[in-house]
Write a structure and sequence with these properties.
It comes from Paenibacillus rhizolycopersici. Belongs to the short-chain dehydrogenases/reductases (SDR) family. This is SDR family NAD(P)-dependent oxidoreductase. The chain is α/β, with parallel strands linked by helices. It has one domain: NAD(P)-binding Rossmann-like Domain (Rossmann fold, 3-Layer(aba) Sandwich). The chain has twelve helices and nine strands. The chain has a seven-stranded parallel sheet, sandwiched between helices. Strands 5-8 form a two-stranded parallel sheet. Helix 1 links the parallel strand 1 and strand 2.
């Protein structure tokens, strides 16, 4: 039985399938009130929503559904308003909604890339703008961003996706400087690739300019074996399943306020991302201290304000 003091109200974006769906389940299992959000909750995603609700009913969990399209500011505002009306507060947002594209960078039109950034990066800003006034007023809250190890290792044939995850990571970092002064924590969880348990690869979009793609036909065999090559990176015998991401987010949210890690890597390919993160952290800390803004690296909790 979870302690009531540990129970938090959590919004998970992009929870219809994959990591978002598994994370909603893990957080509900941990005893939180979870709002699993998705587009078209009464239409195309009605089946996914009902599966989640049934999982909650069957296991005695507080797992709820809410309509939220991260490409609509009005939708984000309405979803947050619904949560505040029903639950009275919103403690955590898990920014998970995203889309994968595969192909040659030149073959993606500006509109292709604009659409991807709108989902993977600007969608985060829409949701943050909807929830941050409430969190700032309470001087409490946690923003969890489901990032990607691709923003460190930069794999081939996913250029616009990688660029959008870089952008999302930057939004998370710079927002953290500011909201941390109002008691709002930030954690960037960086999953590595997964080839099971998610529709990420099967549902990936392709570049719309087929003619430009044909100019790179000599590289097609490399693209074709991309998923197979990724699978070959996993340590033999290890269960590289995306449920590990939800479990890690649940672990992080169970930690005391003010002690949650800024970054956490969930990667079964041994890509060395942790070492790069640590080097970047040291450089960032040195730079911020030299600027005289070192305090922005630390969350200002009610406890720290008293010390």
């Amino acid at each position: 039985m979870k302690k009531e003091s540990m129970k938090q109200v959590v919004l998970v974006t992009g929870a219809s399938t994959g990591i978002g769906n598994l994370t909603a389940r893990s957080l509900a299992d941990a005893g939180h009130t979870v709002y699993a959000s998705m587009r078209n909750i009464g239409g195309r995603n009605a089946g996914h929503a009902e599966e989640l609700l049934e999982y909650g009913r069957s296991n005695g969990l507080d797992l709820r559904g809410v309509e939220l399209d991260v490409q609509s500011e009005a939708s984000a505002e309405a979803a947050v308003a619904t949560i505040l009306r029903e639950a009275g507060k919103l403690d955590v947002v898990v920014h998970n909604a995203g889309h994968l594209v595969v192909g040659y960078v030149e073959a993606f039109t500006p509109k292709d890339i604009e659409h991807l950034f709108d989902v993977n990066a600007i969608g985060i800003q829409r949701v943050n703008r909807a929830v941050l006034p409430h969190m700032r007023e309470r001087r409490s809250g946690t923003l969890v961003y489901v990032g990607s190890t691709t923003s460190v290792v930069v794999p081939p044939f996913m250029g616009p996706y990688v660029a959008s995850k870089f952008a999302a990571d930057a939004i998370a970092q710079v927002t953290a400087y500011e909201v941390g002064q109002f008691g709002i924590e930030t954690t960037i969880v960086m999953p590595g690739p997964f080839t099971q348990g998610t529709d990420h690869f099967p549902n990936a979009s392709r570049a719309s300019d087929v003619e430009r793609s044909s100019g790179y036909a000599a590289l097609d065999p490399l693209v074709k074996r991309n998923e197979e090559a990724t699978s070959g990176l996993f340590t033999p015998g290890v269960d590289a399943h995306p449920k590990a991401v939800g479990e890690e987010i649940a672990r992080i949210l169970a930690l005391p306020e003010g002690t949650r890690p800024f970054r956490s890597v969930v990667d079964f390919t041994n890509a060395g991302v942790e070492e790069v993160n640590e080097a970047a952290r040291r450089a960032q800390e040195n730079f911020m201290n030299r600027l005289g803004f070192g305090e922005l690296l630390h969350i200002k909790t009610a406890q720290s304000a008293q010390n």
